[in-house]
């Protein structure tokens, strides 16, 4: 069973954190969820990592501020910059030593980039590998929702206007009945050719837990972030990037530009898949994550020991 606890941020926000595996595992994998979601997004990866690596890998998930079971925050802190700072603080609290693999979906991937940009020394000292799932380093540059550019511009205008309204709604949450009525739209926006009904229910449940302030407040910095230059400084790290060819939010050009900035990155494009690859294509995501972890475990640890000799790897 995972250990559950809260980590306090300097501004008083409390982040809900869950960990699985021993605190002294040679490698810690930190899985960061996307916008309006929560740590439950990774449940299929948690099971796979435990089965594959046992005590050799500790897995950490947490709900971003304003999401899931974490507390709401002041509107000025609903930014990717703050999420990058939060990640540094979480690492200090739950994985103060040892090597770390950072795995980010959508906003979670952008959080990793912001952490690397704002805390380069901290990042370099801790991070041993990267996995980017359905994310971008170029804001909304490539986001056209699978539609014509003209219609996409109109949708983006409506979306950003609506986000500004929601951001002023504080810690309120969307009524569950409304979200249930919107499930066909959620399915169209987030999933590709096929999805399990349980996945739609989980996503709807996550959106219902997100405060309206976080749903609206993070939209501006998500659309504006550009961190390709930051990625080019990380080319030495084992990395993987995955995207679905039906992703309406972060389409294949987003992952392709990440792979171009990180030439050693293994790029996987999943036919027929949308934005929720962890759920739609768990085998591909698990294989990419496992591949990066095995490369890190096989490399000498900073003290010269072979990390793969510590713990059990099945």
From TrEMBL:
Keywords: Hydrolase
Entry-linked InterPro entries: AB_hydrolase_1, AB_hydrolase_fold, AB_hydrolase_sf, Epox_hydrolase-like
Keyword Hydrolase assigned: yes
Entry keyword annotation includes Cell membrane: no
An example molecular function term from Gene Ontology annotations: hydrolase activity
A cellular-component GO term for this protein: membrane
Residues in AB hydrolase-1 domain copies: 30-288
Name this protein carries in UniProt: Alpha/beta hydrolase
